[in-house]
Amino acid sequence: METAETDCADTSLSRPTGGTMDDIVQDFLIESGENLDRLDQELVQLETHPSSKELLASIFRTIHTIKGSCGFLGFARLEKVAHSGENLLSRLRDGDLKLTEELTGGLLAMVDAVRRMLADIQTTGEDGVEDHCELLERMKALSQVQPEVKMLVKPGIDSSGQIGTSLPLADGNLRSTEPSERNQIAERPVGMVTSVLPTGENGQAMPASGAVREPEVVTDPVRIGVNLLDRLMNLVGELVLARNQLMQFSLRSPDAGLQTISQRMNLIAAELQEQVMKTRMQPISNIWSKFPRTVRDLAHSCGKQVCLEMEGQDTELDRTIIEAIKDPLTHLVRNSVDHGFEAPEARQRAGKEAAGRLRLRAYHEGGQVNIEISDDGAGLNADRIRKKAVERSLIAAEQAARLAEGDVFNLIFLPGFSTAEKVTNVSGRGVGMDVVKTNVEKIGGMVDVTSKAGVGTTVRIKLPLTLAIIPALLVSCRGERFAIPQAGLTELVRLEADEAAKGIEMVHGVPVYRLRGRLLPLVYLSKELRLDPQGTDSEGRDAAINIAVLQADDRQFGLVVDEINDSEEIVVKPLRRQLKAVKAFAGSTIMGDGRVALILDVLGLAQRASVITEAREHGLGEKSAALRGTARAKRRYLLFKGPHGSRMAMPLDILTRLEELPSADVEKAGKQWVAQYRGEILPLVNLDFALEERRQTRREDSKLREDESDAPLQVLVCDHEGRNVGLVVEQILDIIEDAAELKYPASRPGILYSTVIDERVTELIDIPAILHAAGIGSAEVAAHFAKSAEAH
Amino acid sequence: MHQTSQFCTFYLDQLLFGVDLKEVQEVIRELPMTPVPLAPAVVSGLMNLRGQLVTALDLRQRLELGPGEPGVQPMNVVVRSPDGAVSLLVDEIGDVVEVEEATFERPPETLQGKVRSMILGVHKLDARLLHVLDVEKACEVGENFAAAASSQ
Fold first, then answer.
1. What is the ipTM of this complex?
2. Is residue A216 included in any domain, yes or no?
């Protein structure tokens, strides 16, 4: 310890002084950081290809460069550690040692130690206080393995006795770094470091700056600060705007010369914009390059064998997106290794190779980037997930049982879900998958999981290419222009004045539009953004209506705007702090005429309009929307009067339509009441009878309703297993939004539970159970109806 | 040798205000403005200043001075705030004045309320008082608004 300190004191005296010192250290840190990343990869590769001379040479060079630089800069501790690694490597290269798992482990530990010290240098300017005795001892022990190992060297490696000469480095240089000699290097004056540098083509390999360059580097990438790139990007945006104005001006001018110039300007600006945009793009390998090491370490600590395959490493993404998905991706990869794969013995028993295959794949498709993480492990266990979700009261048992397998898998994205039986230091803390989902969705992406028992699991992530320039639809409302990101846009509907008057209906005062048979809630942009002056409320029911159908989370809603203008690629500019609190906007952009337009945040807008609730992170997906109520999210219900005036409710999302059918339209097919409805036969179920107690049995030949009045029937048309079924109720009351937190057990069949809504006891009906009791819903009945339909 | 500082001055409701010249990016006439629905009333809108997105704040409203005279086109004093450029809408632009530190005085205790935090003090000029605006505080609209929204 004492010697280490004196070492440090000595060398710090010999450090170059002056203002350039910080720059040199900074360069050294950046360069070493990159070198270490490469080392990680190469060491893991070396494990699988132990005979590769090129790899060994490259690793040796990298360590050597780091050692040389830190000797020059006076980081004695760092130099010592790097030196121990170099020692080991040189013995490896000379064939004295054979690469073993312990050896790789030792080298990786050395890389980690170096990385820690670099971090220390970054923060404190010194290479830490740790003396790394243990590591140095370990390295020393590793390098003193018996020479008999050499006998075990495979014939293929035998020829590597000649490695020294076949290396791209000059032989003499390598020989000069024999272990015995190199032990003294640390004590040599700093200037001497030059003598162990590879000379190669340029004899003066040590530039004055102290940065050690590899002789074979041909292309020379330049490091540019991100700020500068952003600034460039802004300036180009500005240039494009100036160009637009010039173009408009030149069109009005009779001067042919000006027009020619502005045309050229136009082309150049477009080209420039494209190229500058490219500077924002980075290959996904920037994240992936860390994975071989991650997977190796994790597999070792879990006692598993994993072989990592990567495809599409060149796939480029905007760097902001790269930054945003780094953690989610790492988490997914760790998850796969930790939970996805079985132990080697179990794999072999299952007839698989002992080593699991973890496959990463990235590719472009339809203007989006797809990333797949698949393993050939045991797959997700649907029953276990069901059980766990119920245990953690994330969903109710009966709902869990009813979920399709595909939807069950999506339960793992619920907050607080984890099936890990033991908490490891990698995963199993109950956070993770929900964070993955939230993070991916935050940048406009989607995540989905598929799995097959015994075959494996695949997680798919879909991401936008860039967040900086997005395709958007421009709309206007009350004279203001707004941009809607195309990603959230499903379709456009235009209703002419007469259609609009008929097409827009009210569900208790809430406007809806029937889009291909489903109710689409309508949101008026002018109302939502309070664009109309106080007091006036012009919903413009007499004019044509433009609806942009938007997708927010798993719900659709129609945004009513005054005009739909055009679609355009827009440059997104984030909103300032003063406006961050306004959730309805995702940002702003500058239009061709130089004015600012606001970009609508589809999710935020939907939340504002209560189309979806704030608790959307708890959501799962359209198919499993039935889970929402129990995920303690607020949910919308239709309230109606059931038998004997009791208050009942059903979730709004399974409701297709509300109908009023004239009682004359009701017919009887067999024992079932039906009505012809939109070209199909709609089976009708009277809730009065369906909910009667068993012993009274169904009065099958009875009337559909008790009073023989001619008043029209109130029918709730529900979607049940892909077909419509009509529930006849007394009266439709209201649509309410409620968390339905208090649940009381059902007192009779056909009811899921009772709860208190609006301070009144309300029964939540169990549609499948009711339909089942009424003899509808099973496949046979459906077939029966199909037959009777033919008979008609 | 007296300590002096330079102020860019402007008028608001007959009062003379000044901001440190070093904090001013530029002074411009009107620019097309895009109103931001749902934003705090103090935010007049967004402007495109040569590709730079600028939030315009109605300084009259910020300082609780009541609405300006109709028909008068406000001027933009574009200042650098920690969160990018912000334009302060003012009635009229004055001169750049140089004042001595000695003429400065803290606002009187009788000046109370929200406004007090935005006025650093006054310089006693020959004919009138120059109110020194705390640019950073004046631009802190987001937090107040967010806090107000969350407390509701």
1. 0.82
2. no
Answer whether residue A147 is part of any domain.
yes
| A448 and A347 in a common domain | yes
The answer to whether the Cβ–Cβ distance between A598 and B34 falls below 8 Å is yes
Closest-CA residue of chain A to B146 = A581
pTM, rounded to two decimals: 0.49
Output the DSSP codes for A318-341: EHHHHHHHHHHHHHHHHHIIIIIS
Hey, is the C-beta of B141 within 8 angstroms of any chain A C-beta?
yes
Which CATH number goes with the domain that contains B83? 2.40.50.180
Using CA coordinates, name the residue in chain A closest to B31.
Answer: A595
Q: Is A478 on the interface with B (CB under 8 A)?
A: no
Q: Which two tokens stand for residue A248?
A: 């408009």
| Count of Cβ atoms closer than 10 Å to residue A43 Cβ | 24
Nearest-CA distance A541 → chain B (Å)? 23
Residue A581: list chain B partners with CB under 8 A: 40, 142, 145-146, 149
- Closest partner CB to A597 (pick from B34, B50, B142): B34
Measured between its terminal Cα atoms, the distance across chain A in Å is 98
Minimal C-alpha gap between B88 and chain A (Å): 13
Residue among A430, A404, A427, A428 at smallest CA distance from A417: A430
- Give the domain extent around A261: 226-279
Q: Is residue A565 part of a domain?
A: yes
Yes or no, beta carbons of A596 and B40 under 8 Å apart? no
Task: Mark whether A303 and A388 lie in a shared domain.
Answer: yes
Q: What is the DSSP letter of A573?
A: B
Residue A371 CA to residue A462 CA, distance in Å, equals 6
Of B50, B34, B151, which Cα lies nearest the Cα of A587?
A: B34
B52 touches chain A (CB under 8 A): yes
Please say which residue of A196, A214, A245 terminates a domain. A196
Burial class (CB in 10 A: 0-12, 13-18, 19+), A8: middle
Tens of pLDDT, residue by residue over A305-359, are 888 899 988 888 888 888 888 888 888 888 888 888 888 888 888 888 888 889 9
- Among candidates A215, A213, A236, A123, which has minimal Cα distance to A169? A215
pLDDT of residue A350: 85
Q: How many helices (H) and strands (E) does chain B have?
A: 4, 12
B86-124 confidence digits (pLDDT tens): 999 999 999 999 998 889 888 888 888 788 888 999 999
